[in-house]
Amino acid sequence: MSGGPGHKPILGIDLGTTYSLVAVLRDGRPTVLPNALGEVLTPSAVSFTGAGEVLVGAAAKAQAVLDPTSGAVAFKRDMGTDRQRILSGRGFTPQELSALVLGSLKRDAEAALGMPIEEAVVTVPAYFGDLQRQATRDAGAIAGLKVERIINEPTAAALAYGLHERGRELRVAVLDLGGGTFDVTVLEIIEGVIEIQSSAGDARLGGEDFDTALARHVARAFREKQGVNLEEHAAAWSRLREACEGVKRRLSASERTRLVLPELPLETGRRLTLDLELSRDEAEQAWSSVLERVRGPIRQALKDASLQSKDIDEVLLVGGSTRMPCVAAMSAELFGRLPLRKLPPDEAVALGAAVQGAMKGGDRAVEDLIVTDVAPFTLGVATMAQAGRQHVTGVFSPILERGTVIPTSRVERYATSSDFQREIRLEVYQGEHARCEDNVKLGEYRFQGLPPAPASEQAVDVRFTYDLNGILEVEVTVVATGRKEAFVIEQRPGRLTPAQIEDARQRMAALKLHPRDALPNTTALARADALFVELTGAPREELAAAIAGLRLALEAQEPGRIAEVRERLNALVRAFRDR
Length: 579
Ligand code: AMP
Hints:
CATH architecture of the domain at 379-491: Sandwich
Largest sheet: 6 strands, mixed
Structural class: alpha+beta
Helix content: 25-40%
CATH topology of the domain at 379-491: Substrate Binding Domain Of DNAk, Chain A, domain 1
Radius of gyration: 26 Å
Number of helices: 14
Distance between the termini: 42 Å
CATH superfamily of the domain at 379-491: Substrate Binding Domain Of DNAk, Chain A, domain 1
Bound molecules: adenosine monophosphate
Shape: globular
C-alpha cells in the first residue's frame, strides 16, 4: 500500500448472492484476503448457534442446508424489499443480514491487515436499481463501514482486467454469471481509460436457476419411478437442490456423476433414498431454457453499444457459473472466439473493487486509471397525456436515458395540469416501458406551496442527478419564482430512515458473535453434520467416528490435538464430498 505507515486502505468487497470476498491493493497489486478458515470465499449465509451466537459463512451455510429455517442464504435477492427472514425467533431485514456478512468480512480484513478498517467499496450487479443500491449502502452503515463507493460488479471486473491490460486498446464484453444474477457489460479500454459502453442483465438469473432446473429434472425422474413429488416436501427438496449444486459443479469437470441421497425425509414421516446416474448431456438438456435466458442480456448489451458480436476483441468470463462448459460454449458460439479466463472468475470482482478503493484512496499505483460508467436504467416521471379530449395518466416521461455516461444531471420542464394547482405529486419510475405501471416505482415526492397561477403559466423544472454510485437525486424548481423546494419523500418499501439505520446498527452490534477462533472447529462440525445425512454404510460410520473424535478433543480442551483431529475430519469431508 502506498501512502506510508498508518494509512488505512479502503477495502474492496464483493457482496455476492452465494459467496462474498474482500480484497485490498497491496504493493500495487489487488489481493484477496482470507477469512478465519483461511478461505477466500465466505458463503453469504447467516445463522445462529444453539447458544444464540451469530454465525456467518460456511458453518451457517451448512446449517441452513440441514434445516432451511435455521439459517438465511441468498438474501441479496431480497435487497430493496421489506421481506424479512426469521432466525432464532427474530425478524431480520435483507440489509441487516447483509450487514452481518459485511461485518464478518471487515473483521477478517482487520485480522489479515492488523489494523482497524472503516471504509469500503462495495460492488452490486449493474442491474441493481436505486432501491437495491440504497439498501446495499445502508447495509454498510449498519455494519459500521463507510461505503465510499458502490460500483457495478462487471465494472469492477473490467477494472481488475484493465489494470493488467492498461497498455492495450481493446473492446471487451464482460459476462458475469454468479449465483443469483447475470450482468453483461461492453467496454472499451484505451490507455488506462476504461469506458463502459453499455450494460444489461437479469437480476433473477444465475447458478441457482441451473440448480433448480436440475433438481426439477431429477424430481421428475424420481416421481416416474417412485410416485413421489419431492418438490412438495420442503426438507427433501432443500437437500435435493443443494445436492444438485454439487452435481452441477462435478459435471463442469467430468461427463458423468452419481447422485445419492439416502433417507430423504417426506412430510408424511416416511424416508426415501434417491440414487441415480447423471450425464452432462442430460443435465444440459435440463438447462436449455435457462441457457436461452442467458442469451437475452448479451444481445441487449451489444445492441445498446451499437455493436455486433464480431466487433468484440475479448470476452471476459467472471462469476462462478461461467465455469460451466455449456456457458463457455454458448459464449464462444455467440462471439466466434474463445473466452478469456485471465483472472480467477470468482475473484475478479473483489479484486476490481480493491482497485477502485485504491483509486478513491489516492494510491499512486493506480493513478493513471480512469473508469467511466453508464446508467443501467432509464429514469423518469409519471405524466399525463392528452389523447383527443381524454386524459391518459401514468405515461412514463424519461428524464435520464439508459446508457448515459454517469455522473450526469438533466432537467426537464413540466407544466401543471389544472388551474391554480397548489401541489404537485411527482412519481419517479425506473424502467424501459412506456406505461409507468410496467416500470419500477422508486418513490413519490409531494411538492407543496406552488404560487397560484393558471395551468398554462405554471411550470416546474425537475432535475435528476445520477451519481457515480448509480443513486438518484431529485430536485424541483418552480420556474416562476426560482424557488427550490425541499420535498417530503414518502416511505418506500425496503427503504430505511437514518433513525432506522442507527437502530439496526445498535441491534446488530448487540448480537453476540460466535468467537472467530472457534470458527474452524464449528465449521468443520457443521460441514460434517451436513454431509453425514447424505452418507450410508461404512463411510457414514467413518465420518461419525471422526465427528466424535473432534467433539471429544474439544471437550478435553487439548489445543494441539484439536487442530490435528479437525484437519483429519476436514480431509474426510472433502474426500467423501468429491467422490
Ligand atoms: P459467484 O456468485 O460468482 O460466486 O458464483 C457462485 C455460483 O457459481 C454458484 O451458483 C455456484 O454453484 C457456481 N459455481 C461455482 N463453481 C462452479 C463450477 N465449477 N461449475 C459450475 N458452477 C459453479
